[in-house]
């Protein structure tokens, strides 16, 4: 009898563990007030929003997201991004987040546009931080999402990359994403911490995602907070005009002397914009 009880205890423990692991998203909640969903960029955990949350949580209920495979969270089966998108949509519905504001950085902003384009959503407005609806189209001539597959020479090379080479690549990438030395260190650490397959195949998912047609279905206010580096204001403005051509109206705000992580490079200016948009 003791053996049966022990077996059942272990069985139910493992079953519970299986049910709680390998989720597409992981969300923590802080504060009370207006609901705000904060979605980070690729490889970046929810803690990237810590300083923003500290200044919002006295008036906002902040739902801070970390995506599977990043920030130490367990990876999930591929395709990765469609599962993430669906999980976020279900989270909003399940938690009855009415009049919701979504703040999304980079990939998080792309996801925010997808969510805002869905029928019968409860989103009040979206704030996109250096985010494009089709990053792949900007990076590749003759862009066709169907041409992007997991099994390709570049992805295979990254999967086989040594820890030292991956570390060097992460260092180089982080230096282009922020002008802030401390932020560069954090960004590098987040890249290295990411699950390697999620990093490689998840990025393929990211490049495949093209929500430019979906923009026609967005009726809520959209604010885009962009960085002026490295292209300069004129080219940045034209890039966003091209990518968001199907969006009827948006408010573009460009941060001076900032790279991709605007919240790290211009934190005071960034918070002024957020507080104005949220009318806090």
TrEMBL record:
<dbReference type="Pfam" id="PF12697">
    <property type="entry name" value="Abhydrolase_6"/>
</dbReference>
<keyword id="KW-0378">Hydrolase</keyword>
<feature type="signal peptide">
    <location>
        <begin position="1"/>
        <end position="18"/>
    </location>
</feature>
<dbReference type="InterPro" id="IPR050266">
    <property type="entry name" value="AB_hydrolase_sf"/>
</dbReference>
<dbReference type="InterPro" id="IPR000073">
    <property type="entry name" value="AB_hydrolase_1"/>
</dbReference>
<dbReference type="InterPro" id="IPR029058">
    <property type="entry name" value="AB_hydrolase_fold"/>
</dbReference>
<feature type="domain" description="AB hydrolase-1">
    <location>
        <begin position="36"/>
        <end position="270"/>
    </location>
</feature>
<dbReference type="GO" id="GO:0016787">
    <property type="term" value="F:hydrolase activity"/>
</dbReference>
<protein>
    <submittedName>
        <fullName>Alpha/beta hydrolase</fullName>
    </submittedName>
</protein>
<keyword id="KW-0732">Signal</keyword>
